[in-house]
Design goal:
about 130 residues, 5-stranded mixed beta sheet, about 55% helix
């Protein structure tokens, strides 16, 4: 597989990883995804890793990098479908994934992203109201 497909769904990008990622493919996914966030103005990135059985420290860092870079571009990141063995591995490796939100499945992940976007919109409206009153 040369590239992982990135699907646009409204304000969100959806990535479903169906293969164990080797280093080059993971780095390509990172750069492709960040380019797509910038190009589309996406407000959220949902990464489905339900088919991934092994995550190493490099892959953990890639997920963390995607979340950090997406956040800089005003998009939230949610990882869904994590297998228990993957969660155990990430904890045992001591990987802290700041900015990465998790949900059990795609449906719950989309709900989480929608909730975060609504919360951000409300905060922006409140800030605009405060500015207008000044």
């Amino acid at each position: 597989m040369d590239r992982i497909p990135i699907l646009k769904m409204g304000h969100f990008l959806l990535v479903t990883i169906q293969v164990d990622l080797y280093d080059r493919l993971a780095m390509d996914l990172e750069s492709d995804l960040i380019r797509m966030v910038n190009k589309t103005g996406a407000k959220g990135v949902l990464i489905d890793i339900s088919a991934v059985s092994i995550v190493d420290s490099f892959m953990g860092r890639i997920i963390g990098n995607i979340a950090s870079m997406s956040k800089l571009l005003d998009a939230e990141t949610v990882v869904v479908g994590m297998q228990p063995a993957v969660a155990i591995t990430l904890v045992e490796l001591g990987l802290d994934l700041p900015g990465v939100h998790t949900a059990l499945n795609v449906e719950k992940g989309m709900d989480l992203l929608k909730g975060m976007i609504v919360a951000d919109d409300v905060e922006e409206l409140e800030e605009d109201d405060d500015t207008a009153l000044s």
